[in-house]
């Protein structure tokens, strides 16, 4: 059997002083801490010791894929340099489309206080405010399958976004896609690693290589 691992990496912290839900809006780049997260993840995958002095074996990366959005491309850049891999841009791993892009999302002074937005909230199971969960899963699983086949016998890294990564995990675990966003296990610059034996999923492993950088960053608006 051929063992292949596809790592799903959520991008690092984004510079977002306005606190808006930026979604697919272009121009949102990593913050200074986000760039440090990206560098630390690359070092982690390359087998360099972390802040606690521990390290993992160097990843056998054969493929690097990223969402076309700037924050994902910037997160992928240090890994591209560390492993000498070109970044393959794949629209299938982009952030989910969302009606509330560019707006603050909340009840107080956020968009939820305006009745014109209420029709988009009628069905959280779909969800009615954006790209259906099942469509996100379909495109993500297709991208994962392609990465698995292209990196067969090695490892692949896909840089994506919180919601698509979390939904992909839920789908592979045969769990319902509707969920409480506050309970997603997918922090900034985290790795959701899918290990396959041939084309069958054998295990899922979640890790946070930059856990010490997360306080305060984990609540940054956006995904």
UniProtKB/TrEMBL annotation:
Instruction: Report any Pfam family annotated for this entry.
Output: His_Phos_1
Q: Which GO terms describe its molecular function?
A: phosphatase activity
Q: SMART domains in the record, alphabetically? A: PGAM
The record's GO CC annotations read:
cytoplasm
Top-level taxon of the source organism = Bacteria
The identity of this protein, by name, is Histidine phosphatase family protein
The protein's organism comes out as Cellulosimicrobium arenosum
What is the taxonomic lineage of the source species? Bacteria, Bacillati, Actinomycetota, Actinomycetes, Micrococcales
């Amino acid at each position: 059997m051929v063992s292949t691992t596809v790592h799903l990496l959520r991008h690092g912290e984004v510079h977002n002083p306005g606190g808006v839900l930026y979604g697919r809006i272009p121009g949102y780049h990593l913050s200074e801490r986000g760039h440090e997260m990206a560098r630390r993840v690359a070092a982690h995958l390359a087998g360099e010791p972390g802040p606690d002095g521990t390290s993992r074996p160097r990843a056998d990366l054969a493929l690097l894929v990223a969402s076309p959005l700037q924050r994902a491309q910037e997160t992928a850049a240090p890994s591209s340099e560390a492993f000498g891999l070109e970044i393959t841009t794949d629209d299938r791993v982009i952030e989910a489309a969302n009606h509330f892009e560019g707006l603050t999302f909340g009840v107080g002074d956020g968009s939820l206080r305006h009745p014109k937005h209420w029709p988009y909230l009628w069905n959280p199971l779909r969800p009615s405010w954006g790209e259906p969960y099942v469509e996100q899963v379909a495109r993500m699983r297709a991208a994962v399958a392609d990465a698995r086949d292209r990196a067969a016998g090695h490892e692949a890294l896909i840089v994506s976004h919180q919601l698509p990564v979390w939904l992909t995990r839920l789908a592979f675990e045969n769990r319902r896609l509707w969920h409480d966003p506050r309970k997603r296990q997918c922090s900034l610059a985290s790795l959701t690693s899918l290990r396959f034996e041939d084309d069958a999923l054998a295990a899922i492993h979640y890790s946070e290589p930059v856990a010490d950088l997360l306080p305060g960053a984990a609540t940054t608006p956006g995904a």
